[in-house]
Amino acid sequence: MAVPVRKALVADLERILLALAFWLGLAAGPLQAADDWIERLGLLQDPAANFTPDSVRAGPFQSYDHQLALGFSRAAHWVRVELRPSAVPLLLSIEIPNLDHVRLLRRDKAGVWHTTESGDTVPYAERPWRSPFLAFRIEPEQTGQPLYLRILTTGTTGINIAARPIEQGLLSEHRHMILDAAIFGLVLMAIALCLLLYAVSRQRIFLGFCLTQMLWLAEAVTFNGYTSVLLPGTPTDRIYSVLGSASFLVDMFFHIALVRRFRPAAWAFWTATGVAVLGLFAVPILFFQDVMLAMQFRTILSAIFVVLMAVMAWTAKAPSVVSVGMLRTVYSALVLSICIWLLPMLGWTAPLSISFQAIMLQGTVNLALIMAMLAYQTLRERRLAEVASERMRDAETERRVQSQSLEAQRNLTWMLSHEVGTSLAIIRLALTRETISDRNARRIDKAINGLDRVIRHCLDTDRIQAGQLAISPRKLDLTEVVLGLREQFHGQRRIADDGLQEPIFLTTDPDLIRVTLTHILENAIKYSPEDTPIQLQIAPLADRAGVRITVRNERLAGPAPDAGRVFDKFYRDPHVLATSGSGLGLFIVRQVAKALGGSARFQIEDDFAILTLDLPDLTGTPSDLAVPRLQRVSG
């Protein structure tokens, strides 16, 4: 089962990575669109956040190319935007949407500055552009002169500024909305799947995952500006800070609890736990000290924590809710997604285009994790079901074997009590007479023969099953054997052999053939009406060297015997229990036939019982070949 499970998990991983690659292709679009109307961008840092627009005009702006990493800074950042002239209104969009405060300043021909404000600290109802995304409408007459953006933010991954005609700008926003809706829908699906997994497995780790995803979803909705639409009269900067910290803490403790199941390196586990405990201090800092300090503290701990998570994943020793290989893959992708977000925020690297959607990438990786959990759990449940089914089959087989064993023991007890008891009663009755008549002597002889037959049958059965019966193939004349048996049973029944006279030679074990044919004829005579002949025919096998011996007898009145059980050890048809018999004759016939490389079959046709014995020619088989141990039959 291990190979199919591994193949299924690999297939699921391929699907997840393909979906992730597709999403990356959508999100990692060009930094500057082909229809962008921005001609030049300049950046000026205002450390004390006290520059005036007039002082900024003459400031030393440094040119940069669209993307901007601010990191954690209390400074104001001024961006000078120079647009190409346009005959249509433009949409000046600013990514990412969770900037605290953005102010657009423009100077008219009279030298008067006009200011428009937006950002998380500005309620949605007061923003100039009614959209989840931060943007300003630029009229055609405003495109021929520099525009200034004053940006204040607690901390951000990066900022991307673009200017497009209104129609193209709206199209870009709609594309982002569709992409966000798809990601949010997938996360909601992951939450639903987690609840389903919890309902099936009752493992609390799935409830923990649901909580982390709910908080992540709330954080992502706020990060992308949708909360401002839902709460049009409320600034959303504080909401994002609280949700971000809550998501950060719950996420850390969830991942620790999850990876612990895989038995990672102890030092990595306890170090990660210590980092998570330190993360608790971000809460009082957030509420009572400084939001920027709390976010910076959280970001540094996140950078350390994700590295420890990767170490824990790569030192994991045992699978749990996913395979170890899948755990390593998902956590490696998770570390990459968080680094794309963290490093620019810390100011260590320049932002990439994907950095502006890093939080969505993290959600996609989390979705990959739950899909891997679902796939692994499904395969695990399927395997457990297969094991349970196999155990049930084994238990049923054991029960059937025990039932057959008990039945065989009952049949043996009944047979011994009947055969031995009857024979002993006859002998005891005869011995009570002063003189033994010829009739009683014959009865005693018959009883003794019956006892001898039972003992002989039991000994033959034991020797066959113990593998102590040796095969000594020799060439013999079957015609001679049949004529001898016909003479042996002459006083009991007529055996019709179709005038068998010509020699029929076969290389096999003479003693075993005589024993087998004796049992067959005894069975046919015992279970057929008196004065009816027993028909015996010998014909060559069609597919190989050997013979087919067919014994046909008219059966007794009443229900037909169970053809599927007549070869079972100690089996006696319930309707003929009054007839003397050990229940071993046909069992010995089939076992000997198998030992000789042949087969025995029993069937009912109309009012006749037919036993067919196929025997191969053993020419070339070594003499005194031990019979291999046959299948053990309970009882």
UniProtKB/TrEMBL annotation:
Origin: domain of life: Bacteria
MF terms (GO), sorted A to Z: phosphorelay sensor kinase activity
Protein keywords: Membrane, Transmembrane, Transmembrane helix
Gene Ontology CC: plasma membrane
Record's keyword annotation contains Membrane: yes
InterPro entries: 7TMR_DISM_rcpt_extracell_dom2, HATPase_C_sf, HATPase_dom, His_kinase_dom, Histidine_kinase_KdpD
Any Pfam family the entry gives: 7TMR-DISMED2
Domain Histidine kinase: 415-619
Transmembrane feature ranges: 177-198, 205-227, 239-259, 266-287, 293-314, 326-348, 354-376
PANTHER family (UniProt xref): SENSOR PROTEIN KDPD
Protein name: ATPase
